[in-house]
Amino acid sequence: MRRNALIGLLFTAAVALFIVPVIAPPRTAKSPAPAPNELAVPAPVPRELAIPAPVASPRLRAEAEKMSKQRILQRDMEATELLCRSDCTLDMTRFLRDHAGIKAEDRAAHLRQAMKEHPHMLKIAWTSQGKTVQAGKPADGLEQAAAADWKQAKQALRQGKTYQSRTFKYGGKDHFVLALPDGGKPGEGVAALVTTDVVQQVERHQKRNLRLTPYPSEGRYRLESVLPNTNRDTTVKNGEDNQNASHYAVDEIVVKFQKPLTSKELLALRKELSLTVVRHRGQTYLFRSSRYKMDQLKERFAKWNPVYVEPHYLYLTHETGGTSGASSGSSATGTAGTIVPNDTLYSKYQWNLPEIATNKGWNVTRGKDDVVVAIVDTGVQSDHPDLKGRLVQGTNIIDPTQPPNDDVGHGTHVAGIIAAQVNNNEGVAGMTWYTKIMPVKALDSSGAGTTYSVAEGIIWATDHGADVINMSLGNYAEAQFLHDAVKYAYDHGVVLVAATGNDNTDRPGYPAAYPEVFAVGATNQDESRAEYSNYGDYVDVTAPGTSIASTYPGSRYAALSGTSMACPHVSALASLVRAANANLGNEDVMDLLRKTARDLGPAGKDVDFGYGQIDVDAAVRAANAEAASQQQAETPPQNLAGETGETGESFAERIRRQLERLFGTDGSQP
């Protein structure tokens, strides 16, 4: 039927001497499975980095799932330490190179500046031309704990050798000693005492994000745990219980009235219910009561016949575990036009980018600096050297008087996956070279945020020009105010992308399960569904999510796992698609990502992978081809059928080419 319709259009075009533009499909969320995509090319799997994963069965027993998550956490912690050691070695190598010509009297000042830029280096000794300058004074106990390793480091320098000690603990934190000779000159070089406390930071918040421990703890925020979309109380005793629980503030409630309250009505409510207006937008109010609990407030507000009244839910990050670890240089070109950036941690740690053919897609587009991805999260480290020049103005919903800085690590890690500087001889490579990041801090220092703060963040980002909004967060309860914000952004053309969650459950999580939102699950290095990743018929696609290296606060790097890490891969791809074809609407972009995904698991759409794992090269090529087709369709022909235009191709030849594309190269129907 479609073939006949297209033939009719082509012959009509031949007679009327114009081409009808391609009509975009209707905007329907969670659309049915698209036709197989001919452009999708399987990306090679970096087997040297692959770690066999447990069978990702939806019915993994709770204990087996917990053990699997603990293995992931341990692997991420080990990877983070390796990243930290690699990055510190590179920093000290760069220091020796850049300070080779410094005068003796200026060395101490330069060394102090280096320590200021790298606060995880607690003590540095620099020997040059027979003289040693030192900066940093660790605690006496730490000096003693490191004494034997420090002695070996100095001995290695005298022999012109490099040295790295074992990891040792002091004060509950990991440390190691590093020595680097200066060009092999015996006795000259640097020795440093380094803390890898980022490993402990990753362990603490990844235990929560992987739901290995109850999170959040009841009592914080005056929270209560309930069964999703009910007010029936439940108790979260362990991480497994999180998948059957939602959390809300016991003394707060969100009410959307039929119309905004008058000053008189608001005053009466405040007196009657001992209310404080925490936040207010239009006819929607967030109230807190010093006398009544949520269920009591809900009953009392019912008489106002509100549009809705609901608990003030809490939304949590979807990260599981982690690893820690700048003038443009030249990139290399690998096989089949693959671009290999010179970022120092790329080749060894970033399995995820070649897995989804990012490097090939860069031959089509590397992004544009007028495309903005908002990250509604914990904030972003604004002065991270690998995010330099990539941030636009953001906002802090939690505390509007403060900038949207990251006090957790989650948002900075998400930002680096999308937009870490590429090919700058430093750190990691992001998926885009030019896309801008808009940091929207809607989650606090615990990594959690409320319905209102997340909704406010979405609305703010939309009003300030975001093209894509990344939401690596979620809850199992539907909040109507949050859905209102999602629909507002969707109606303004924003592509909304959200993580499904890390509880290995098919229970729909929100905002990912809203029909206007593109839902993302996670895959492992062997292309299996990650054992923690939520699944279900609402999942659109999957993306790499396990042991993903990216930027981390303190100007460092970490490897984390979770659907929180998979989500920004898709947000980055959406920004690349919009760079390749600015005429695509938000539903057009989402439909293209579905069509170009590389099918994994059972043929067609399935509950584990949705339409498959994203394919950057296929997606941007399809977007670019669509843009070219639109441009051709919108350009009226200048000549009659027998004449040639500027391209040397006659209009009749263009019609013949269109028919050949339909029926085959010989013009006959297959």
UniProtKB/TrEMBL annotation:
InterPro entries linked to this entry: Peptidase_S8/S53_dom (IPR000209), Peptidase_S8/S53_dom_sf (IPR036852), Peptidase_S8/S53_subtilisin (IPR051048), Peptidase_S8_Asp-AS (IPR023827), Peptidase_S8_His-AS (IPR022398), Peptidase_S8_Ser-AS (IPR023828), Peptidase_S8_subtilisin-rel (IPR015500), Thermitase-like_dom (IPR034084)
Q: In which compartments does the protein localize?
A: Secreted
The protein's superkingdom reads Bacteria
Span list, region Disordered: 627-651
What's a GO biological-process term for it?
proteolysis
Write the record's keywords in alphabetical order, separated by commas: Hydrolase, Protease, Secreted, Serine protease
Q: What is this protein called?
A: S8 family serine peptidase
Secreted recorded as keyword: yes
Q: Which species is the source of this protein?
A: Cohnella zeiphila
Q: Which residues form the active site?
A: D377, H410, S564
Q: Name one GO molecular function term.
A: serine-type endopeptidase activity
Quick check: keyword Protease in the entry?
Answer: yes
- The Peptidase S8/S53 domain covers which part of the protein? 369-612
Write out the GO cellular component annotations. Answer: extracellular region
**Similarity-based family:** Belongs to the peptidase S8 family.
